[in-house]
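In line with agreed milestones, the collection of sequences with tokenised folds has grown. One record among many is set out beneath this paragraph:
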Amino acid sequence: MQCQMPRLEDHCSCTSKHLSGAKWFVYKAEEMMSLITSMLSQAYGSLHDVRTANLIRRGLVLFTVGAILALVLNLLQIQRNVTLFPEEVMTTLFSSAWWIPPCCGTGAAVVGLLYPCLDSHLGEPHKFKREWASVMRCIAVFVGINHASVKLDIDNTVQLSLTLAALSLGLWWTFDRSRSGFGLGITTAFLATVISQVLVYNGVYQYTSPDFLYVRSWLPCIFFSGGVTVGNIGRQLAMGGVEKLHND
């Protein structure tokens, strides 16, 4: 009986087959990883685009709401002779200063976008009365507070300021009750009052019978309630955007 030794060519052929199989497996694995990476990149890019578009959409809505509210409330104050503008200004659009609605709209967009951002940063999502009916009631109360600031016939400015402060705190307690909302409302009131002070000091416009340096002492109460109102609108818009992203 003759022993048949394995030939060298057969051994090399088997080895090359194993190597080619390993290379094919590595190639397929790399192709699969590349496909998965591409899909994840596209999904992240799509999600980022959706979030950016949603942020821009919310900002435009807040800007429009702020500009409309500023125009209406400013006309109310001019009608009640609370705010006085130069004669040349009164001949502009809607008998008001043209720069007031854009400035207030920009401020409303910034404040309205900051409220949900701060809620997310603090880890305290705002869940108190999260529906559009509550937001509309908050807007109505805010307009009522502004109307009361020029309608109430109170000679004592301290009493008027305390009354409006109580109404503003009541608006926050009724429609917000969050620490972030209270803090941002205070910050908004302080910054807006300082800006008004600077504008009045430079003669851009003036208030009749100012009792706190150049402005009315109850002005911070109006800005506080306005910040809370715009913040509630921004939160409601953000909640709608989050639900849309979740559904997608």
Observations:
- The CA atoms of residues 11 and 160 lie 101 Å apart.
- Strands lie at 83-84, 206-207.
